[in-house]
Write a structure and sequence with these properties.
The structure is a homodimer.
Chain A lengths: L9 H9 L4 H8 L6 H7 L5 H13 L3 E5 L7 E5 L1 H4 L2 H12 L15 H10 L7 E6 L2 E6 L2 E4 L7 E5 L1 H10 L6 E4 L1 H11 L9
Parallel strand pairs in A: 3-6
Antiparallel strand pairs in A: 1-2, 3-4, 4-5, 6-7
The structure holds a DNA duplex (20 and 20 nucleotides).
Chain lengths: ~210, ~210
DNA sequence: CCGCATCCCCAAAGATACTG
DNA sequence: CAGTATCTTTGGGGATGCGG
Protein backbone atom coordinates (compact mmCIF):
# COMPACT_ATOMS: atom_id res chain seq x y z
CA UNK A 1 0.00 0.00 0.00
CA UNK A 2 2.29 2.75 -1.15
CA UNK A 3 -0.87 4.78 -0.89
CA UNK A 4 -0.77 6.82 2.28
CA UNK A 5 -3.49 6.89 4.89
CA UNK A 6 -3.09 10.63 5.47
CA UNK A 7 -3.43 10.27 9.21
CA UNK A 8 -1.05 11.13 12.03
CA UNK A 9 -1.61 7.78 13.70
CA UNK A 10 0.98 5.14 14.62
CA UNK A 11 -1.27 2.28 13.51
CA UNK A 12 -1.77 3.81 10.08
CA UNK A 13 1.94 4.57 9.97
CA UNK A 14 2.82 0.95 10.72
CA UNK A 15 0.34 -0.38 8.18
CA UNK A 16 1.78 1.84 5.51
CA UNK A 17 5.05 -0.04 5.99
CA UNK A 18 4.02 -3.64 6.62
CA UNK A 19 0.31 -3.64 5.85
CA UNK A 20 0.46 -4.84 2.29
CA UNK A 21 -0.40 -8.35 1.31
CA UNK A 22 2.42 -10.82 2.08
CA UNK A 23 4.58 -8.31 3.95
CA UNK A 24 4.00 -9.65 7.44
CA UNK A 25 4.31 -13.22 6.22
CA UNK A 26 7.72 -12.39 4.83
CA UNK A 27 8.61 -10.89 8.20
CA UNK A 28 7.29 -14.00 9.93
CA UNK A 29 9.62 -16.15 7.84
CA UNK A 30 12.63 -13.94 8.47
CA UNK A 31 11.96 -13.93 12.22
CA UNK A 32 13.17 -17.53 12.12
CA UNK A 33 16.47 -16.39 10.63
CA UNK A 34 17.97 -15.07 7.37
CA UNK A 35 16.67 -16.67 4.21
CA UNK A 36 17.45 -16.67 0.53
CA UNK A 37 15.09 -15.46 -2.14
CA UNK A 38 14.27 -18.96 -3.29
CA UNK A 39 13.64 -20.23 0.22
CA UNK A 40 11.24 -17.37 0.86
CA UNK A 41 9.49 -18.14 -2.38
CA UNK A 42 9.11 -21.76 -1.32
CA UNK A 43 7.90 -20.88 2.17
CA UNK A 44 5.23 -18.54 0.79
CA UNK A 45 3.05 -20.70 -1.43
CA UNK A 46 1.51 -18.76 -4.27
CA UNK A 47 3.29 -15.49 -3.83
CA UNK A 48 4.51 -14.95 -7.38
CA UNK A 49 8.08 -13.95 -8.02
CA UNK A 50 7.37 -10.38 -9.02
CA UNK A 51 5.38 -9.66 -5.88
CA UNK A 52 8.08 -11.17 -3.68
CA UNK A 53 10.72 -9.06 -5.37
CA UNK A 54 8.60 -5.95 -4.99
CA UNK A 55 7.90 -6.59 -1.29
CA UNK A 56 11.55 -7.25 -0.55
CA UNK A 57 12.46 -4.01 -2.25
CA UNK A 58 9.80 -2.09 -0.31
CA UNK A 59 10.72 -3.63 3.01
CA UNK A 60 14.38 -2.95 2.41
CA UNK A 61 13.62 0.67 1.55
CA UNK A 62 11.56 0.92 4.74
CA UNK A 63 14.51 -0.33 6.79
CA UNK A 64 12.74 -3.50 7.89
CA UNK A 65 15.19 -5.89 6.28
CA UNK A 66 18.57 -5.85 4.60
CA UNK A 67 20.16 -7.81 1.79
CA UNK A 68 23.46 -9.40 2.71
CA UNK A 69 26.01 -11.23 0.62
CA UNK A 70 27.40 -14.35 2.22
CA UNK A 71 31.21 -14.63 2.18
CA UNK A 72 32.71 -15.92 -1.10
CA UNK A 73 32.81 -19.68 -0.37
CA UNK A 74 29.02 -19.74 -0.56
CA UNK A 75 28.00 -17.43 -3.38
CA UNK A 76 24.54 -16.67 -2.03
CA UNK A 77 22.72 -13.62 -0.79
CA UNK A 78 20.29 -13.68 2.06
CA UNK A 79 17.64 -11.35 3.42
CA UNK A 80 17.60 -10.66 7.13
CA UNK A 81 15.66 -8.43 9.44
CA UNK A 82 17.20 -5.29 10.82
CA UNK A 83 16.74 -4.39 14.49
CA UNK A 84 13.78 -2.31 13.35
CA UNK A 85 12.29 -5.31 11.60
CA UNK A 86 12.99 -7.62 14.53
CA UNK A 87 10.82 -5.32 16.63
CA UNK A 88 7.85 -6.64 14.63
CA UNK A 89 8.07 -9.86 16.60
CA UNK A 90 5.44 -8.69 19.07
CA UNK A 91 3.12 -7.70 16.26
CA UNK A 92 3.43 -11.08 14.58
CA UNK A 93 2.99 -12.87 17.90
CA UNK A 94 -0.20 -11.02 18.75
CA UNK A 95 -1.55 -11.67 15.28
CA UNK A 96 -0.80 -15.34 15.77
CA UNK A 97 -2.51 -15.37 19.16
CA UNK A 98 -5.59 -13.80 17.68
CA UNK A 99 -5.54 -16.06 14.67
CA UNK A 100 -5.28 -19.13 16.88
CA UNK A 101 -8.74 -18.46 18.26
CA UNK A 102 -10.38 -19.34 14.98
CA UNK A 103 -7.97 -21.93 13.64
CA UNK A 104 -9.49 -25.26 12.74
CA UNK A 105 -7.96 -28.37 14.26
CA UNK A 106 -4.95 -29.63 12.33
CA UNK A 107 -5.69 -32.51 10.04
CA UNK A 108 -3.75 -35.69 10.58
CA UNK A 109 -2.15 -35.18 7.22
CA UNK A 110 0.94 -33.16 6.58
CA UNK A 111 -0.14 -29.52 6.56
CA UNK A 112 2.30 -28.55 9.33
CA UNK A 113 5.50 -26.88 8.16
CA UNK A 114 8.79 -28.18 9.54
CA UNK A 115 9.87 -26.23 12.60
CA UNK A 116 6.35 -25.16 13.50
CA UNK A 117 6.54 -26.30 17.12
CA UNK A 118 8.95 -23.68 18.53
CA UNK A 119 6.85 -20.98 16.87
CA UNK A 120 3.69 -22.41 18.39
CA UNK A 121 5.23 -22.57 21.86
CA UNK A 122 6.45 -19.01 21.55
CA UNK A 123 2.98 -17.87 20.53
CA UNK A 124 1.31 -19.68 23.39
CA UNK A 125 3.78 -19.13 26.22
CA UNK A 126 5.88 -16.06 25.53
CA UNK A 127 3.41 -13.67 27.19
CA UNK A 128 3.37 -15.70 30.42
CA UNK A 129 6.99 -16.92 30.40
CA UNK A 130 6.32 -19.79 32.80
CA UNK A 131 8.96 -20.96 35.25
CA UNK A 132 10.07 -24.55 34.97
CA UNK A 133 11.44 -26.81 32.27
CA UNK A 134 9.20 -28.46 29.72
CA UNK A 135 9.72 -30.75 26.77
CA UNK A 136 7.11 -31.08 24.06
CA UNK A 137 7.05 -33.95 21.58
CA UNK A 138 4.32 -33.25 19.08
CA UNK A 139 4.10 -35.38 16.00
CA UNK A 140 7.68 -35.63 14.78
CA UNK A 141 8.79 -32.34 16.32
CA UNK A 142 10.52 -31.84 19.65
CA UNK A 143 11.01 -28.52 21.42
CA UNK A 144 11.86 -27.26 24.88
CA UNK A 145 10.47 -24.47 27.01
CA UNK A 146 12.87 -23.57 29.79
CA UNK A 147 12.00 -20.66 32.07
CA UNK A 148 10.00 -19.04 29.31
CA UNK A 149 12.65 -19.52 26.63
CA UNK A 150 11.76 -21.67 23.64
CA UNK A 151 14.34 -23.79 21.86
CA UNK A 152 14.16 -26.55 19.27
CA UNK A 153 15.16 -30.03 20.36
CA UNK A 154 14.86 -31.83 23.69
CA UNK A 155 15.25 -30.21 27.11
CA UNK A 156 18.15 -31.00 29.44
CA UNK A 157 16.38 -32.13 32.61
CA UNK A 158 12.73 -31.39 31.99
CA UNK A 159 10.24 -31.19 34.86
CA UNK A 160 7.56 -32.39 32.48
CA UNK A 161 7.53 -34.16 29.14
CA UNK A 162 4.39 -33.95 27.04
CA UNK A 163 3.84 -36.18 24.04
CA UNK A 164 0.89 -35.96 21.67
CA UNK A 165 -0.24 -35.75 18.08
CA UNK A 166 -0.76 -32.26 16.65
CA UNK A 167 -4.53 -32.74 16.87
CA UNK A 168 -4.41 -33.84 20.52
CA UNK A 169 -2.12 -30.88 21.26
CA UNK A 170 -4.69 -28.58 19.65
CA UNK A 171 -7.60 -29.93 21.67
CA UNK A 172 -5.57 -29.76 24.86
CA UNK A 173 -5.26 -26.01 24.44
CA UNK A 174 -8.70 -25.26 23.05
CA UNK A 175 -10.88 -27.54 25.17
CA UNK A 176 -8.55 -28.93 27.85
CA UNK A 177 -9.07 -32.41 26.46
CA UNK A 178 -6.32 -34.75 27.59
CA UNK A 179 -7.25 -37.60 25.24
CA UNK A 180 -4.17 -38.86 23.50
CA UNK A 181 -1.84 -36.68 25.56
CA UNK A 182 0.91 -38.51 27.42
CA UNK A 183 2.57 -36.74 30.34
CA UNK A 184 5.70 -37.72 32.22
CA UNK A 185 6.78 -35.82 35.32
CA UNK A 186 5.10 -32.96 37.12
CA UNK A 187 1.65 -32.94 35.59
CA UNK A 188 0.35 -30.34 38.03
CA UNK A 189 3.00 -27.89 36.96
CA UNK A 190 1.88 -28.39 33.39
CA UNK A 191 -1.75 -27.82 34.30
CA UNK A 192 -0.94 -24.59 36.08
CA UNK A 193 0.98 -23.35 33.09
CA UNK A 194 -1.87 -24.27 30.78
CA UNK A 195 -4.29 -22.27 32.90
CA UNK A 196 -1.97 -19.29 32.81
CA UNK A 197 -1.53 -19.47 29.06
CA UNK A 198 -5.29 -19.79 28.65
CA UNK A 199 -6.04 -17.37 25.83
CA UNK A 200 -7.08 -19.74 23.08
CA UNK A 201 -10.84 -19.76 23.22
CA UNK A 202 -11.97 -20.80 19.77
CA UNK A 203 -15.16 -18.87 20.45
CA UNK A 204 -15.95 -17.69 17.01
CA UNK A 205 -18.88 -17.18 14.74
CA UNK A 206 -17.42 -17.72 11.30
CA UNK B 1 -7.71 -10.31 0.69
CA UNK B 2 -10.44 -12.81 0.17
CA UNK B 3 -7.72 -14.75 -1.53
CA UNK B 4 -6.49 -17.43 0.83
CA UNK B 5 -2.92 -17.93 1.83
CA UNK B 6 -3.19 -21.75 1.69
CA UNK B 7 -1.15 -22.15 4.82
CA UNK B 8 -2.00 -23.73 8.14
CA UNK B 9 -0.55 -20.81 10.07
CA UNK B 10 -2.28 -18.57 12.61
CA UNK B 11 -0.63 -15.43 11.26
CA UNK B 12 -1.86 -16.14 7.75
CA UNK B 13 -5.23 -17.06 9.18
CA UNK B 14 -5.47 -13.76 11.03
CA UNK B 15 -4.38 -11.75 8.00
CA UNK B 16 -7.01 -13.42 5.87
CA UNK B 17 -9.58 -11.87 8.21
CA UNK B 18 -8.18 -8.44 9.06
CA UNK B 19 -5.23 -8.08 6.69
CA UNK B 20 -6.95 -6.12 3.97
CA UNK B 21 -6.44 -2.44 3.54
CA UNK B 22 -8.45 -0.34 6.03
CA UNK B 23 -9.64 -3.32 8.07
CA UNK B 24 -7.45 -2.76 11.10
CA UNK B 25 -8.09 0.96 11.00
CA UNK B 26 -11.81 0.28 11.20
CA UNK B 27 -11.12 -1.98 14.16
CA UNK B 28 -8.98 0.73 15.72
CA UNK B 29 -11.89 3.16 15.51
CA UNK B 30 -14.39 0.70 16.94
CA UNK B 31 -12.07 -0.10 19.84
CA UNK B 32 -12.99 3.35 21.11
CA UNK B 33 -16.65 2.35 21.12
CA UNK B 34 -19.56 1.73 18.73
CA UNK B 35 -19.78 4.10 15.77
CA UNK B 36 -22.20 4.89 13.00
CA UNK B 37 -21.40 4.49 9.34
CA UNK B 38 -21.00 8.18 8.78
CA UNK B 39 -18.74 8.62 11.79
CA UNK B 40 -16.50 5.84 10.54
CA UNK B 41 -16.40 7.42 7.13
CA UNK B 42 -15.37 10.71 8.69
CA UNK B 43 -12.72 9.13 10.92
CA UNK B 44 -11.13 7.32 7.97
CA UNK B 45 -10.09 10.05 5.56
CA UNK B 46 -10.19 8.92 1.97
CA UNK B 47 -11.74 5.52 2.43
CA UNK B 48 -14.49 5.77 -0.16
CA UNK B 49 -17.99 4.71 0.73
CA UNK B 50 -17.99 1.53 -1.30
CA UNK B 51 -14.81 0.22 0.29
CA UNK B 52 -16.09 1.02 3.77
CA UNK B 53 -19.33 -0.81 3.06
CA UNK B 54 -17.44 -3.79 1.70
CA UNK B 55 -15.09 -3.96 4.70
CA UNK B 56 -17.94 -3.71 7.16
CA UNK B 57 -19.70 -6.53 5.39
CA UNK B 58 -16.56 -8.67 5.40
CA UNK B 59 -15.76 -7.97 9.05
CA UNK B 60 -19.32 -8.72 10.06
CA UNK B 61 -19.23 -12.00 8.15
CA UNK B 62 -15.96 -12.84 9.90
CA UNK B 63 -17.57 -12.25 13.28
CA UNK B 64 -15.31 -9.31 14.12
CA UNK B 65 -18.08 -6.76 14.41
CA UNK B 66 -21.87 -6.62 14.52
CA UNK B 67 -24.46 -4.18 13.29
CA UNK B 68 -26.87 -3.06 15.96
CA UNK B 69 -30.01 -0.95 15.83
CA UNK B 70 -30.33 1.58 18.57
CA UNK B 71 -33.70 1.59 20.39
CA UNK B 72 -36.52 3.41 18.59
CA UNK B 73 -36.16 6.91 20.07
CA UNK B 74 -32.91 7.32 18.16
CA UNK B 75 -33.34 5.79 14.73
CA UNK B 76 -29.70 5.00 14.15
CA UNK B 77 -27.66 1.88 13.65
CA UNK B 78 -24.15 1.43 14.93
CA UNK B 79 -21.30 -0.97 14.33
CA UNK B 80 -19.59 -2.46 17.33
CA UNK B 81 -16.92 -5.04 17.93
CA UNK B 82 -17.83 -8.50 19.11
CA UNK B 83 -15.77 -10.17 21.85
CA UNK B 84 -13.80 -11.76 19.06
CA UNK B 85 -13.12 -8.36 17.53
CA UNK B 86 -12.26 -6.81 20.88
CA UNK B 87 -9.50 -9.39 21.18
CA UNK B 88 -7.72 -7.50 18.40
CA UNK B 89 -6.83 -4.80 20.90
CA UNK B 90 -3.42 -6.34 21.56
CA UNK B 91 -2.72 -6.56 17.85
CA UNK B 92 -3.58 -2.92 17.30
CA UNK B 93 -1.56 -1.88 20.33
CA UNK B 94 1.55 -3.70 19.17
CA UNK B 95 1.19 -2.22 15.71
CA UNK B 96 0.94 1.20 17.29
CA UNK B 97 4.02 0.59 19.43
CA UNK B 98 6.00 -0.47 16.39
CA UNK B 99 4.68 2.40 14.31
CA UNK B 100 5.63 4.90 17.01
CA UNK B 101 9.29 4.12 16.45
CA UNK B 102 9.28 5.79 13.08
CA UNK B 103 6.67 8.48 13.61
CA UNK B 104 7.79 12.01 12.84
CA UNK B 105 7.29 14.63 15.51
CA UNK B 106 3.81 16.11 15.49
CA UNK B 107 3.53 19.45 13.81
CA UNK B 108 2.26 22.33 15.86
CA UNK B 109 -0.77 22.49 13.62
CA UNK B 110 -3.89 20.47 14.04
CA UNK B 111 -3.13 17.00 12.76
CA UNK B 112 -4.06 15.31 16.05
CA UNK B 113 -7.51 13.77 16.15
CA UNK B 114 -9.74 14.56 19.13
CA UNK B 115 -9.39 11.92 21.84
CA UNK B 116 -5.91 10.90 20.75
CA UNK B 117 -4.34 11.20 24.21
CA UNK B 118 -5.97 8.24 25.95
CA UNK B 119 -5.02 6.06 22.98
CA UNK B 120 -1.46 7.29 23.14
CA UNK B 121 -1.21 6.62 26.87
CA UNK B 122 -2.62 3.15 26.39
CA UNK B 123 -0.09 2.43 23.68
CA UNK B 124 2.81 3.67 25.77
CA UNK B 125 1.90 2.39 29.22
CA UNK B 126 -0.46 -0.56 28.93
CA UNK B 127 2.36 -3.13 28.71
CA UNK B 128 4.00 -1.85 31.89
CA UNK B 129 0.85 -0.83 33.82
CA UNK B 130 2.72 1.47 36.19
CA UNK B 131 1.57 1.94 39.77
CA UNK B 132 0.64 5.46 40.79
CA UNK B 133 -1.69 8.15 39.60
CA UNK B 134 -0.79 10.44 36.72
CA UNK B 135 -2.49 13.28 34.93
CA UNK B 136 -1.40 14.32 31.45
CA UNK B 137 -2.33 17.66 29.92
CA UNK B 138 -1.10 17.67 26.35
CA UNK B 139 -2.24 20.43 24.07
CA UNK B 140 -5.94 20.74 24.72
CA UNK B 141 -6.39 17.15 25.86
CA UNK B 142 -6.41 15.84 29.41
CA UNK B 143 -6.21 12.19 30.43
CA UNK B 144 -5.44 10.16 33.54
CA UNK B 145 -3.37 7.07 34.12
CA UNK B 146 -4.27 5.46 37.43
CA UNK B 147 -2.59 2.17 38.36
CA UNK B 148 -2.20 1.29 34.70
CA UNK B 149 -5.75 2.20 33.72
CA UNK B 150 -6.21 4.99 31.20
CA UNK B 151 -9.22 7.30 31.32
CA UNK B 152 -10.11 10.56 29.61
CA UNK B 153 -10.31 13.66 31.77
CA UNK B 154 -8.40 14.72 34.88
CA UNK B 155 -7.27 12.38 37.65
CA UNK B 156 -8.70 12.49 41.16
CA UNK B 157 -5.63 13.01 43.33
CA UNK B 158 -2.71 12.62 40.95
CA UNK B 159 0.80 11.93 42.23
CA UNK B 160 2.15 13.76 39.19
CA UNK B 161 0.73 16.19 36.69
CA UNK B 162 2.53 16.61 33.39
CA UNK B 163 1.76 19.47 31.04
CA UNK B 164 3.27 19.94 27.59
CA UNK B 165 2.62 20.56 23.94
CA UNK B 166 2.23 17.50 21.72
CA UNK B 167 5.69 18.12 20.28
CA UNK B 168 7.32 18.40 23.71
CA UNK B 169 5.48 15.23 24.75
CA UNK B 170 6.88 13.48 21.68
CA UNK B 171 10.47 14.51 22.37
CA UNK B 172 10.14 13.55 26.00
CA UNK B 173 9.47 9.96 24.98
CA UNK B 174 11.81 9.71 22.03
CA UNK B 175 14.85 11.59 23.32
CA UNK B 176 14.10 12.23 27.02
CA UNK B 177 14.13 15.95 26.35
CA UNK B 178 12.34 17.84 29.09
CA UNK B 179 12.23 21.17 27.25
CA UNK B 180 8.77 22.61 27.43
CA UNK B 181 7.54 19.92 29.83
CA UNK B 182 6.04 21.16 33.08
CA UNK B 183 5.82 18.73 35.97
CA UNK B 184 3.97 19.11 39.26
CA UNK B 185 4.33 16.55 42.03
CA UNK B 186 6.50 13.46 42.18
CA UNK B 187 8.84 13.93 39.27
CA UNK B 188 11.00 10.96 40.21
CA UNK B 189 8.00 8.65 39.98
CA UNK B 190 7.39 9.97 36.50
CA UNK B 191 10.99 9.40 35.49
CA UNK B 192 10.92 5.82 36.72
CA UNK B 193 7.77 5.16 34.75
CA UNK B 194 9.27 6.70 31.64
CA UNK B 195 12.29 4.43 31.93
CA UNK B 196 10.04 1.41 32.28
CA UNK B 197 7.93 2.37 29.27
CA UNK B 198 11.10 2.94 27.28
CA UNK B 199 10.29 1.25 23.98
CA UNK B 200 10.11 4.21 21.65
CA UNK B 201 13.50 4.35 20.04
CA UNK B 202 12.99 6.19 16.81
CA UNK B 203 16.02 4.31 15.49
CA UNK B 204 15.06 3.99 11.89
CA UNK B 205 16.59 4.18 8.50
CA UNK B 206 13.76 5.45 6.34
C1' DC C 1 20.16 -23.09 -10.82
C1' DC C 2 19.30 -18.47 -8.38
C1' DG C 3 17.51 -13.90 -8.56
C1' DC C 4 14.97 -11.34 -10.33
C1' DA C 5 12.46 -8.14 -14.63
C1' DT C 6 8.63 -8.16 -18.10
C1' DC C 7 4.10 -8.86 -19.84
C1' DC C 8 -0.70 -9.80 -19.63
C1' DC C 9 -5.03 -10.24 -17.17
C1' DC C 10 -8.18 -9.79 -13.76
C1' DA C 11 -9.66 -8.49 -9.11
C1' DA C 12 -9.73 -4.98 -5.84
C1' DA C 13 -9.24 -0.03 -4.47
C1' DG C 14 -10.21 5.09 -5.53
C1' DA C 15 -13.42 8.57 -6.92
C1' DT C 16 -17.79 10.32 -7.72
C1' DA C 17 -22.63 10.25 -8.52
C1' DC C 18 -26.88 8.81 -7.17
C1' DT C 19 -30.90 6.56 -4.42
C1' DG C 20 -34.27 4.47 -0.57
C1' DC D 1 -28.10 8.80 6.91
C1' DA D 2 -26.51 4.76 4.94
C1' DG D 3 -25.37 2.92 1.71
C1' DT D 4 -25.48 1.17 -3.96
C1' DA D 5 -24.00 1.85 -8.85
C1' DT D 6 -20.59 2.95 -12.09
C1' DC D 7 -16.21 4.05 -13.89
C1' DT D 8 -11.29 4.45 -13.71
C1' DT D 9 -6.90 3.18 -11.85
C1' DT D 10 -3.87 0.47 -9.32
C1' DG D 11 -1.98 -3.68 -7.68
C1' DG D 12 -1.69 -8.80 -7.32
C1' DG D 13 -1.45 -13.66 -9.69
C1' DG D 14 0.62 -16.38 -13.17
C1' DA D 15 3.66 -17.43 -16.79
C1' DT D 16 7.74 -16.62 -19.11
C1' DG D 17 12.33 -14.74 -20.18
C1' DC D 18 17.07 -13.74 -19.14
C1' DG D 19 21.54 -12.40 -17.15
C1' DG D 20 25.05 -14.04 -13.79
Amino acid sequence: MPKHYEQYCPVAHALERVGERWSLLIVRELLKGPKRYTDLSAALPGIGTNVLAARLKDLEAAGVLAKRRLPPPAPAQVYELTAYGLALKNVVRELARWGLQSMPAPGNDDQLAPGWLPDALDTLFAPVAPEGSFEFRIGDEVAALVDGEVAPGPAEHPDVVLEATPAAFYFLFTERRWDGVEVEGDRELLERVLDAAAPVDATVAA
